[in-house]
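Continuing the batch. This is chain 6 of the set; chains 1 through 5 are on the previous pages. Same settings as before, nothing changed between runs. Recording input and output for traceability.
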Amino acid sequence: MMPDPQHNRRAVLAKGVALLASGLTIPACASRSRSNTASLPGPIWPHEKGSNTPAPSAPRTTPTIPSQGQVTVLARSQWTNTQPILSQTNPMVRIESITVHHDGMSPVDIRTQADAADRIEMIRTSHVEHRGWADIGYHLIVDPQGRVWQARPINLQGAHVKDHNPRNLGVLVLGNFEVQHPTPAAKQTLDRLLAHQSLTHRVPLRSIRTHREWASTACPGRNLQAHMNSTRASAGNLASLLA
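Output for chain 6:
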């Protein structure tokens, strides 16, 4: 029997409501000790539309932002109409490194666009209300179906690697990869996204890192870490895209 998408969405929401109601803070990609368990065409970004005004309210069924090639980015307005607290942010200035994370939360089945939007908004709410941050900590998010979501605006410094946030682009892959495996769609999209951002901002392959390569943490989980080790190797997919 095929899973019921509405049931999946209700399960995502139920877990999020239970966590927030209990006062628990959703981890920023589950920081904890490890002992615990050729140029790519780029996307058209919302801010390139020529307007500095907040995006209007839009239903989640609105089509994605059209891209010029392989990486299509879903607008921030597809998962929230709440803007960052600008008075609590610093400008990014430039990007010199890229860091990959997982959310590290209890695994759920994320299939539909609505499932992913609910999960991202739940993370943003926790970061703002429980951690006191200006916005969700990450800049770009990849979901299990290979969709890419715009999170914190790239022109604002993120909050994803303690003491190493300046000039550091945060990329989150939804899932807990200590216990799950990233889907083929997520891995393929992540590689293309990292390659595009690397070429756009002139970030060398050696400066595309994972959270655990900055600090003592399990993030991005052993299974996503294994993919990152493989894709950055000399014969790996990401290395080939940047060759």
